[in-house]
Specification:
single chain; 70-kda Soluble Lytic Transglycosylase, domain 1; Lysozyme; two-stranded antiparallel ribbon; 4 strands
Length: about 650
């Protein structure tokens, strides 16, 4: 799921981020999962282990409540259970503050090469850092696999104390975030200020980031790093947060930077709800500010307007002048220029992004597209050629732009043997993942799974993916196959386990098979019982209200919410809803995918009055989650079409043009 999560409950479904849920197949529940037997690879779960699962649940709850005695009692009954390493972690974690180094190191040795051991190491490193026990910290830190900001700031402090002059420079990028940072980073920032490496402009840069994100508390804490007397008034920030129009309408003192920044923030804040009002109010007073301050504020107003697809956004971006905007703002300037087909501005804006941001697949594609639109096709070819080797929405568009439609890569020469699959099935982390799945703790199970495959070669990944496929772990097969670097098996990446069951519904609703499979793959990864945090259920992730509405509309008289996870019911209702959405949106799959994720009203509102290139429509969807979702669904559909030998195997032909809004 994508990176920016919109505050927009889906009408039909919510992709990804599914809450923990075990696969709804009876065979799976008992871990007798195979359709094609894989003898030793399949863990045999005894009745004792299944009985112990409930003890694990009790032990986990005891840990959560801090009940050490109850946890110890449960632990005595869990010896030999796959999740015993986690029980041992929970036991020591409750008394980690009082444990000595010898005991912790002994536990880490027992838990070697487990995610539980890595979590214990992380917790201990944080404790050592808070205590300033740098010798122990420095000895243990290199063994940590999964780090985080708190640990990394402690590690930089340890290096700083040891005289490593590079540590402080490496700490500086941590500052530039809108999020609150752990206390372990504060000494580094204080040292940066003292060394003159964190200047007043840098402090204001973080204050702006925090205010842009609506994090007034973070902004106030960042302001503490300003020189005495230069901090903004906390009450003034709160007033601008809650009454931005009033701040812009009154006569403000603008002698200090803090006073000016508060007014600039008010303009930004107002633009969140009404870019037009913000532009009008800011336009009346912007001459009282410096060129840089005017440019930044116009850029912020334009950015928020662009996210609302306001046609005035591009004009307001131009009023920002030559002020350097951040990558997020520049990205929305590109999108605004795309919708206006202002190709010179697309190209110029892309060039203003940081080098790292320019390497994103989307921006490389749009650079090539702008070059071609500006009759500079020779410059576009190398960009498209590199993109065409990437398996993504933009990689497929690059292939289409270069010439003949290409199918998915041929299956790799490597084929996993029974021994290869059995070896993977014996991995202790796999057993732990399966145990978590039995307990309906899918998030924890997935983390164990990725621990198991984290250092695998392509051959080992393909063996793991094939083992998963044979054991009906469809989502694990896909996720594992997607991690290969050189050898790729698209029959594993794009499984279609319920293809036969889907056929009658496709026929009755006159739906494209590849499109529906692409949508299901994105929605549920073919997990029949998966349930999202928002409450969407089943293969096609139907929300309860949507399922009830479709059931009534289709004349299903005996509908009950509990039926939504039944395979045929879910496919029947999901395909009927999808047909309704398509009928309502000119039978266009891009619009239907957007509607399935964010609602038909939004998908309709994002159209323009004139026909619009569907790739531009997809790129300029305001919600990051939906934007990513639509691209993935359409990319999935194209790969399925190629795999099944369908007639339409070009992504460009599949997405086409969005008709103008009536």
């Amino acid at each position: 799921m994508s990176s920016l999560i919109p505050a927009s409950p889906s009408i039909a479904t919510r992709p990804r981020g599914a809450s923990p849920a075990w696969l709804g197949l009876a065979a799976v529940a008992a871990l007798t999962l195979c359709t094609v037997p894989v003898a030793a690879a399949q863990p045999q779960v005894s009745a004792q282990v299944l009985q112990q699962d409930e003890e694990v649940r009790a032990a986990r709850e005891a840990f959560r409540l801090g009940q050490a005695a109850r946890l110890d009692q449960a632990a005595a009954r869990l010896r030999g259970h796959p999740l015993e390493p986690w029980v041992q972690y929970w036991q020591l974690r409750l008394r980690l503050d009082s444990a000595d180094a010898i005991e912790v190191q002994a536990a880490l040795a027992r838990l070697a090469d487990t995610r539980a051991g890595d979590q214990l190491r992380s917790d201990w490193l944080k404790l050592l850092g808070r205590r300033g026990q740098w010798d122990l910290f420095t000895a243990e830190h290199p063994r940590l696999v999964n780090s985080d900001t708190e640990v990394e700031c402690h590690a930089l402090t340890a290096r700083r104390i040891a005289g490593d002059s590079a540590a402080l420079a490496e700490a500086r990028p941590f500052w530039f975030t809108s999020r609150d940072l752990p206390e372990s980073c504060t000494p580094l920032f204080q040292d940066l200020v003292a060394a003159g490496s964190l200047r007043v402009d840098d402090v204001w840069a973080r204050i702006r980031l925090a205010l842009e994100a609506g994090q007034a508390g973070t902004a106030r804490r960042a302001a503490a790093f300003l020189p005495a007397g230069q901090q903004p008034d906390a009450k003034a920030i709160d007033f601008a947060l809650n009454n931005p129009q009033a701040v812009l309408d009154r006569r403000n003192e603008l002698r200090t930077r803090a006073q000016r920044e508060v007014v600039m923030f008010a303009a930004h804040r107002l633009a969140r709800t009404s870019p037009q009002n913000a532009a009008e109010a800011w336009g009346r007073i912007d001459e009282q500010f410096s060129e840089a301050e005017r440019g930044y504020t116009w850029g912020a107003i334009a950015w928020l307007a662009a996210r609302r697809l306001d046609p005035e956004a591009l004009r307001w971006f131009r009023r920002a002048g030559n002020v350097q905007l951040n990558d997020e703002m520049l990205g929305w300037r590109v999108r605004a220029a795309l919708r206006a087909e202002a190709w010179p501005e697309v190209l110029a804006t892309l060039s203003q992004m940081t080098p790292r941001e320019q390497q994103e697949a989307a921006w490389r594609y749009w650079r090539a597209r702008a070059l071609r639109e500006l009759k500079r096709g020779d410059e576009a070819v190398p960009i498209l050629a590199a993109l065409s080797r990437e398996f993504s929405f933009y990689g497929q568009l690059a292939i289409d732009a270069l010439g003949p439609v290409a199918g998915p890569p041929a299956a790799p020469p490597f084929k996993p043997s029974r021994d290869d699959m059995e070896a993977f099935g014996r991995h202790p982390a796999v057993h732990r993942a399966l145990a978590f799945y039995r307990l309906n703790l899918r998030f924890e199970g997935n983390r164990e799974w990725f621990w198991a495959i984290r250092n695998m070669t392509d051959e080992q990944l393909l063996s793991a993916a094939e083992w998963s496929r044979r054991n009906r772990l469809w989502d694990r097969a896909i996720a594992t196959a997607e991690r290969t670097r050189e050898q790729h098996d698209f029959s594993l990446r794009f499984l279609a386990p319920f293809r036969d069951e889907l056929q009658p519904h496709l026929k009755s609703q006159q739906l494209d098979e590849a499109f529906v499979l692409g949508l299901i793959r994105q929605e549920s990864r073919f997990l029949p019982d998966v349930r999202s945090h928002a409450g969407a259920s089943g293969l096609m992730q139907l929300m309860p209200a949507t399922a009830a509405w479709v059931a009534k509309r289709t004349g299903m008289l005996d509908f009950r919410p509990s039926l939504v996870n039944e395979l045929q019911v879910n496919l029947g209702l999901g395909t009927a809803y999808l047909r309704t959405v398509l009928n309502d949106l000119d039978d266009h799959p891009v619009l239907a995918a957007a509607a399935y994720n964010a609602g038909p009203g939004r998908a309709r509102a994002w159209r323009t009055m004139q026909p619009l290139d569907a790739a531009i429509y997809a790129e300029s969807i305001p919600f990051g989650e939906t934007r990513d979702y639509v691209k993935r669904v359409m990319s999935n559909a194209t790969y399925y079409a190629q795999q099944f030998g369908h007639q339409m195997t070009s992504l460009r032909a599949r997405i086409g043009t969005i008709p103008g809004r009536n």
